[in-house]
């Protein structure tokens, strides 16, 4: 039985996860330089050890708009997407979880979520289904936007 490790995080009231192989590190919020005329979900760029890195707000990308949001308490997941390093702003990061194949289901066709079903790899069931995580396909999600 194959295993996968994921990083669990919150965006709005929903819990998501990413394959840990895509994640380079998790950072506290840091100064972000705005980029004029960039899409609304792009917060700007950061200097990550000398590398200029685009930072996107996953909450905005997924349609959770809160214009008065205080970003100072957020986390930045530094991830690799299509051979590019990007920063992804999330509300909080909870833990790293090891999942087995039988804990991951395909999303139901009738799934109602703010997230387009095309961007969901699956639904992870933890603690006998008491906790559900939406598995985000970052390559597809970011591929549509970049």
UniProtKB/TrEMBL annotation:
Residues 3-146 form the CheW-like domain. GO terms for cellular component: cytosol. InterPro entries: CheW, CheW-like_dom_sf, CheW-lke_dom. It comes from the Archaea. GO terms for biological process: chemotaxis; signal transduction. Gene3D superfamilies: CheA-289, Domain 4 (2.40.50.180), SH3 Domains (2.30.30.40). SUPFAM superfamilies: CheW-like. Signal peptide: none annotated. Pfam families: CheW. This is Chemotaxis protein CheW. It comes from Thermococcus celericrescens.
């Amino acid at each position: 039985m194959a295993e996968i490790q994921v990083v669990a995080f919150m965006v709005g009231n929903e819990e998501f996860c990413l394959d840990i192989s895509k994640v380079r590190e998790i950072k506290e919020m840091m100064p972000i330089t705005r980029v004029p005329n960039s899409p609304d979900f792009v917060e700007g760029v950061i200097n990550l050890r000398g590398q200029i890195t685009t930072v996107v707000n996953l909450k905005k990308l997924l349609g959770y708009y809160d214009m008065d949001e205080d970003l100072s308490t957020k986390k930045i997941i530094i991830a690799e997407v299509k051979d590019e390093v990007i920063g992804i702003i999330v509300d909080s990061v909870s833990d790293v979880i090891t999942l087995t194949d039988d804990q991951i289901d395909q999303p139901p066709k009738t799934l109602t979520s703010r997230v387009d079903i095309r961007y969901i790899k699956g639904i992870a069931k933890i603690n006998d289904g008491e906790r559900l995580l939406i598995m985000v396909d970052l390559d597809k999600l970011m591929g549509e936007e970049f």
